[in-house]
Amino acid sequence: SITTVGQLSRNEQRLSMLDLGYGKIESYQKLEKLGEGTYATVYKGRSHLLSGYIALKEIRLEQEEGAPCTALREVSLLKGLKHANIVTLHDIIFDQTTLTLVFEYVDKDLKQYMDDCGNIMNIKNVRLFLYQLLRGLEYCHSRKILHRDLKPQNLLINERGELKLADFGLARIKSFPTKTYSHEVVTLWYRPPDVLLGSTEYSTPIDIWAVGCIFYEMACGRPLFAGTKVEEELYLIFKCLGTPTEKTLPGVTSNVEFQQLRLANYNGESLLNLAPRLDLMGIDLVQKFLRYNPLERISANDAMHHKFFGVYPSLIHNLQPTQSILDINDIQLTRDHGSKLIMKSVTSKRSSIHL
């Protein structure tokens, strides 16, 4: 197990310094437990190799099964992703009973950020976070990687205002031609209707629908489709966007699960009324994210060039993957209501590396 602060004598500490290095458990100290799940425990820690704090995700290995497949997915994918808007995996440590992933430490996620704001975010920050989400996602999608579990709890926010995609446990490489995948993915509120209706053939648009839901939630302070089960989730979507037809979602009328719903035909509601804080360009972008037909949803790359982001200088599109958009003059986090809590809170013990 990982060494706990104060556990070693000074003599032992001096001797252990000889054993430091990447891939070695002695290189890290646990400070406090942040959270625990079925397969993993997350600790805030300190590294003898890096400055600042790190997060240690300790995954228990079952002798019969070895490393959980979600952990192996996370390792294999994150090792190859180097981007300012994707959480950094610093190190991987194997031993007989555990797999430990060493991440950069970020003490807040988007859900916590919104809660601290009283769910009233400055629209400038909505734009800032949305662009960074799209930027990280475009990097993944260009490498044929789907995240498949985008939600505010899996988006980390540091004190500077940089957003980072995290928790790639459900992510997978998309191969061509499209293969049949499990449809038991994505937290219900952010799951697209085609997947809710049983589609097992999907691609990058599964993430784009989730982006649309997150965009609305940031702008309006509440989830767009907060269903408790699949049938209720579909009802909320149809009521808001109108019941899908063959024109808007080809094949839907012959879908057995759709036929069994027996829901009324809804005309849909005006997003202008539902999202009064968004201007016309913001509404247009939400609508492009939330198209019924996956093939008609805007791509992450095209969304980054949408007029909603027209206030940003054109050089924002020329940054190297590891460069932050906050390195550009005049792009910065705006002080939100409750920002003292946001930037200075040290009372929250919840982990932003989720289990």
From TrEMBL:
Entry binding sites for ATP: K57
Reactions accelerated catalytically: L-threonyl-[protein] + ATP = O-phospho-L-threonyl-[protein] + ADP + H(+); L-seryl-[protein] + ATP = O-phospho-L-seryl-[protein] + ADP + H(+)
One Pfam assignment: Pkinase
A molecular function GO annotation: cyclin-dependent protein serine/threonine kinase activity
SMART domains the record matches: S_TKc
Family to which this protein belongs: Belongs to the protein kinase superfamily. CMGC Ser/Thr protein kinase family. CDC2/CDKX subfamily.
PROSITE patterns, A to Z: PROTEIN_KINASE_ATP, PROTEIN_KINASE_DOM, PROTEIN_KINASE_ST
Protein name from the UniProt record: cyclin-dependent kinase
The enzyme's E.C. designation: 2.7.11.22
InterPro entries: CDK, Kinase-like_dom_sf, Prot_kinase_dom, Protein_kinase_ATP_BS, Ser/Thr_kinase_AS
Keywords (A to Z) from UniProt: ATP-binding, Kinase, Nucleotide-binding, Serine/threonine-protein kinase, Transferase
SUPFAM superfamilies: Protein kinase-like (PK-like)
Domain of life: Eukaryota
